[in-house]
Amino acid sequence: MNILNIFLLSTTLACLTADAVNIMPTPSRIESGSGGLAVEGAHDIVYEEATEPLGREGYELEVKMQGITIRAENDAGKYYARVTLRQLVDQSENGTIPCVKIIDKPKYAWRSFMIDSGRQYQKVETIKGLLDRMAMLKMNVFHWHLTENDGWRIEIKKYPKLGEVGGFVADGPEQQGFYTQEEIREIVAYAAERQITIVPEIDVPGHSEAALKAYPELTCSGESPKPVKKGFSPYLYCGGRETTVDFLCDVLDEVCALFPSEYIHIGGDEAPKSEWKKCTHCQARIRELGLKDEHELQIELTNRLARHLASKGRKAICWGDVVTLPGQELEKNIVVHWWNYRKGKDKALKEGIRRGLPVIANSNYYTYLNFPQKHKWRQYNKSRTFDFRTCYEKNPSDIQNPTDKQREVLLGMGCCLWTDHGLTEEWLDRRLYPRIFAMAEQMWSTAERLPYAEFKAGVYAKRPLLEAMGVHGDWDEEY
């Protein structure tokens, strides 16, 4: 039995009774007791072994008039119990928290939030703030999109121009900069203290102009990418040069040294092949390997990187584009990141099932939190808007009653905040809140789904606390 002495402080927000415990995400089971425990003063938290199977992140939190007991199988469960306890304290007004027993465990092992630091660079303290709020919502994977056409954001010692040049190719507000390896280690450690694993993304072969401007010899032509006025950039890493594979493996070696995650994301989406079609190196490689087309050349490159990661004990994540076209099989250490519901519905999910590959459910309808709640944010047409209720009730990624085959492959669920169209730091929270509460509920809660009105009331009750923290969302969603 381990005892930790802590000091609890009430933040005096809203009256709380045992029958009105407002914990988000909703716990699996809440049993009300009688009486309450004063929150001011020192209290012993007693840690015990779990008395029922709760899994790696499950916990049992019991508040009695005599004190607080947490039962869990490991540190992750203990941490999430303390997150729940913090919510109880934050809701107290009369100097006590109710006597209550909460038994809880997550629906999914993978519960991710992604920030796009490639298009827009965020300060280290901003990243830490996002991690803090992820922890409050019991999200455990921070998917960090670190490379884009607009910026390369990670220092690579062997190729210093990636940061020194690639980090400064764009000239808009908050589009210049990269994270040093020292800063990345600091952020990784900060996340780990909050039971969050950081999964970095190095996008291959597309979304790579920043790297190609730093090292133009990696393009098909050997020249720096030309400006692209509209659509996805055709300038990719050359798929026919062996030097491309050497470069990417070198980068992944340093990435693996910085991030202890079992998973490394290698992109794979939105890669037009017009340059590959006229590239002598790419066409020679296609003939040499007996491939059908440029898509199969991308799969060959993807598989080589996946094998390299496998040699280091890692798994590769790829956007669903790699399975939505016919072609050769993917390495078995590849995870399919299903995203493009807008164009392909659940095709990537079905292909993941057919191929026996793990799948992360993260459809752009409705987990892309950069899409506006209402049609007033720039550069998005009305078809891409979705409100809080739609997010909660109609999210295709929220598979409430999965089939046996779906259950076999679903690794978990994610949500994304892309920063295109100049989404600077001051706008991030406006995009995230309150809809990210719906994401967290769908990722974590195994309880019966609350009616929308009840769920909304619980979420909106958190608004004063968030605003006291300086978090200002887009709460006015009645329209």
Automatic annotation (TrEMBL):
Gene Ontology CC: one annotated term: membrane
Domain (Beta-hexosaminidase bacterial type N-terminal): residue spans on this chain: 43-104
CDD domains reported in the protein's UniProt record: GH20_chitobiase-like (cd06563)
Gene Ontology biological-process entries: carbohydrate metabolic process; glycosaminoglycan metabolic process
Keywords annotated in UniProt: Glycosidase, Hydrolase, Signal
SUPFAM superfamilies the record matches: (Trans)glycosidases, beta-N-acetylhexosaminidase-like domain
Reaction catalysis annotation: Hydrolysis of terminal non-reducing N-acetyl-D-hexosamine residues in N-acetyl-beta-D-hexosaminides
Active site positions: E270
An example Gene Ontology molecular-function term: beta-N-acetylhexosaminidase activity
EC number per UniProt: 3.2.1.52
Glycoside hydrolase family 20 catalytic domain location: 108-446
Signal sequence segment: 1-20
The keyword Hydrolase is assigned to this record: yes
InterPro entries recorded: Beta_hexosaminidase_sua/sub, GH, Glyco_hydro_20_cat, Hex-like_dom2, HEX_bac_N
Hydrolase as UniProt keyword: yes
Family label: Belongs to the glycosyl hydrolase 20 family.
Descriptive protein name: beta-N-acetylhexosaminidase
